[in-house]
């Protein structure tokens, strides 16, 4: 299934991130400052030598860099295939109108949703996306995580990531977040924003309309 390609891509990205972080830490230990992840991705045997690290340290970096290079090539292959599969689907264009959702997140969300018709309501979809805080209380005390094991972790990740990006680039989203944070906490406010975006992504393909900023954050 195409969805499995998206999940494999996410797995490879996580693995690559671990190797990138390892390289960043080693270089910071010897130079006192970190280099960016994009700089790590551009490293090769020649650029490692230019860092003037102890010989054994340079040798230790090379396996990490080799893995990063290989994973980056495989990720690019998967991303190209995924774009070919989703680019012409009308739902993809609709998702791209949502603040915080770009090419990668639109692909993940579209493939994880499948058919929106299988969800009875926006609340049902938000729960499947793990964007609903489901707490069972007894005498005011939290007893369980509720929907933690329900739905799909991939959609949950996608909408939290979308919320993080929306916070940075969308003023209405940031204002909504700040209002929620003032009453609760940053974690709860971010989850509430993810919930808003998830509900919007339910209605848009149903109604075949792009994202409505006023409707979402009114």
Automatic annotation (TrEMBL):
Pfam families the UniProt entry points to: Transposase_20
One Gene Ontology MF term: DNA binding
The entry's keywords: Membrane, Transmembrane, Transmembrane helix
Keyword Transmembrane: yes
GO biological process, one term: DNA transposition
Domain Transposase IS116/IS110/IS902 C-terminal, residue spans: 93-178
Membrane-spanning segments: 92-111
Coiled coil spans: none
Top-rank taxon, per record: Bacteria
Name of the molecule in the record: Transposase
Organism: Caballeronia concitans
